[in-house]
């Protein structure tokens, strides 16, 4: 069903609500806004040309979650109350194509009965720029930060514009969140406070998310760590594991302990959550395991002053502009886009082959093939996806 759209300002009390009617099959694609392999959804920007050449439409297709009743087997229909058998994956309608069978392992492509193939479709029409922004993915860039770049670009930036650390100092000074403290070591050099992260509701241990905030105030991030901090890091690792085992009954070997680089807050803190749960921000381009950090410092005392540390910057971050001035970070992507534009229309569908590795497919800028070229051709470029 089309979303109801307010055609006039909210201030107008007699605002008229109109429900635009459109034919989904007449949708014409202009750009892929997002292609999320995890959610199995794709978000498209386009128009309904039979209604308007200019009004933007957003269409989202999302594969439905499985219902347990759809995989029932051997259930015959109750003749009186249920004359029709319920659709099931294991019906004679199931089409099966064998990919391969190897020993005890087999892989198939299955097309279930038509009733189970539905895809959830959502349409926003007409969509505003704000809708388009909301449904678009944000461009991200990897910066390989050398020690020199840290000194000349990152450090000056974080020294002048970083988020306030008041909330951290409030915790360390027992002014806020005192009752939430799980464990505290008051040693000025090697001490820390362990408490729930803002993101954790404090109830479900499956989603446990704690922060270990060090007492020392002169360690901004991983970059400042050296071998003199090993006793602090070892104490943090050992004491936090013990405290978590005692309080939550979690096995220390089931905990993920890591630093973010770059962090949002430049006062050293370690993130702790169970490995069985995918916490936000655990990607390899952002996280550094505490065990690895300790080991690196044991091997090379000034490892983090000598290493190049990759990290991610998002479009809209001022630091990205500063790096762009130095390294032309964005220009590389433009070149890739130009290369994609040079691809002939007959080659374009290759960009969508499912055989391609997910990362390559998502990061490539894709030129969509269209029946006729139009003046909006520049828009026919898919953005890379998260
Ligand atoms: O990316 P970074 O390593 O800087 O992460 C900082 C963490 O601090 C995030 O996981 C936030 O959820 C958490 N956090 C942020 N604030 C403002 C607070 C707060 O006031 N209290 C607590 N307990 N955690 C916070």
TrEMBL record:
For the region Disordered, what residue ranges are annotated? Answer: 334-361, 367-386
| This protein's record includes keyword Hydrolase | yes
> A GO CC term?
nucleus
Segments passing through the bilayer: none
Q: Which family does it belong to?
A: Belongs to the HIT family.
Q: Where is the composition biased (Acidic residues)?
A: 339-358
Q: What's the EC number here?
A: 3.6.1.59
- Reaction catalysed by this enzyme: a 5'-end (N(7)-methyl 5'-triphosphoguanosine)-ribonucleoside in mRNA + H2O = N(7)-methyl-GMP + a 5'-end diphospho-ribonucleoside in mRNA + 2 H(+)
Report the InterPro entries cross-referenced here.
Answer: DcpS/DCS2, HIT-like_sf, Scavenger_mRNA_decap_enz_N
Q: Under what name is this protein listed?
A: m7GpppX diphosphatase
**Oligomeric form and interacting partners:** Homodimer. Associates with components of the exosome multienzyme ribonuclease complex, such as EXOSC3 and EXOSC4. Interacts with NDOR1.
Cellular compartments annotated:
Cytoplasm; Nucleus
> What Gene3D superfamilies would the database entry show?
HIT-like, Scavenger mRNA decapping enzyme, N-terminal domain
This molecule's function is given as:
Decapping scavenger enzyme that catalyzes the cleavage of a residual cap structure following the degradation of mRNAs by the 3'->5' exosome-mediated mRNA decay pathway.
Q: Which GO terms describe its biological process?
A: deadenylation-dependent decapping of nuclear-transcribed mRNA; mRNA processing; RNA splicing
GO terms for MF: 5'-(N(7)-methyl 5'-triphosphoguanosine)-[mRNA] diphosphatase activity; RNA 7-methylguanosine cap binding
